[in-house]
Amino acid sequence: MIRNIIFDYGGVIIDLDYQKLYEEFEKLGVKNFDEHFAQLQQAQLFNNLDKGRISEHDFRDALREQVNLTLSDEQIDHAWNSLLSGIREEKIQLLTQLISSYKTFLLSNTNFIHLKAITKYLLRMYGRVNLDSLFDQVYYSCSLGMRKPEPEIYLKLINDHALKPSETLYIDDTIQHVEGAAHVGLIAVTYDPAESLELFLHRTLQQLNQPA
Q1: Predicted pLDDT at 21
Q2: Are 121 and 127 in contact (CB under 8 A)?
Q3: Is there a domain that residue 186 lies in?
Q4: pLDDT for position 212
Q5: In this structure, are 183 and 95 located in the same domain?
Q6: What is each CA distance from 130 to 102, 119, 121, 123, in whole angstroms?
Q7: Are residues 174 and 146 in the same domain?
Q8: Quick one: how far is CA 49 from the chain centroid?
Q9: Is 118 within a domain?
Q10: CATH code of 97's domain
Q11: Which long-range contacts (CB under 8 A, 24 or more apart) does 163-167 make?
């Protein structure tokens, strides 16, 4: 029986638009931003940002040097945050319902620039600064100094709450993060953001909770 559910944030809860991201950077003169950052692979600069190893200021300076362009902080942040398309209300309703039946967690590779943008979005759209109350606990890579698919980040969550991996479902839209979760024993599944999360979760739980 599944008793615990761990959700990825971007691509599962937050809709992402990589094409919009590339278009916004191209408008600034960066023609090949996908070579620096993509869903399946990203430059070390972005890994360091996700792990909180560099400040926002140092990230912007390093990015300016990497793309060899004079860009303002505002231009960089606007383009960088264009990846975030929003959170559909039905997903918030789903999370609200789940917490009464399961232990739920959020485990995200993210950075403080994106988190600030998400806070502004949630305040504007839903009158709340975060979704923390919809989970038993949230885990952000930039606060932990580690990121998926490193096994340590999954193990921290598991050990913090004494979870049994065989009773814990992990949902992510990025294949290497799903593989990382499976490697530490979690029941890991790949979610297609084009599908309804509610229907996907209902079907997955139904399959996993069937008697052997």
Answers
A1: 94
A2: no
A3: yes
A4: 59
A5: yes
A6: 20, 6, 9, 8
A7: yes
A8: 14
A9: no
A10: 3.40.50.1000
A11: 163/4, 163/103, 164/3, 164/4, 167/1, 167/2, 167/3, 167/4
pTM of the predicted protein model: 0.94
User: What domain range includes position 146?
Assistant: 4-15+88-110+128-208
* Overall domain count for the chain: 2
Query: Tokens in use for 120?
Result: 């502004």
List Cβ neighbours of 76 (8 Å cut-off, separation of 6 or more).
Answer: 60, 63, 64
Could you state, in chain order, the average pLDDT of each consecutive group of 10 residues for the chain (212 residues)? 96 95 94 73 85 96 90 96 96 94 97 96 94 96 96 98 97 96 97 96 91 64
Whether residue 92 is found in the same domain as residue 139: yes
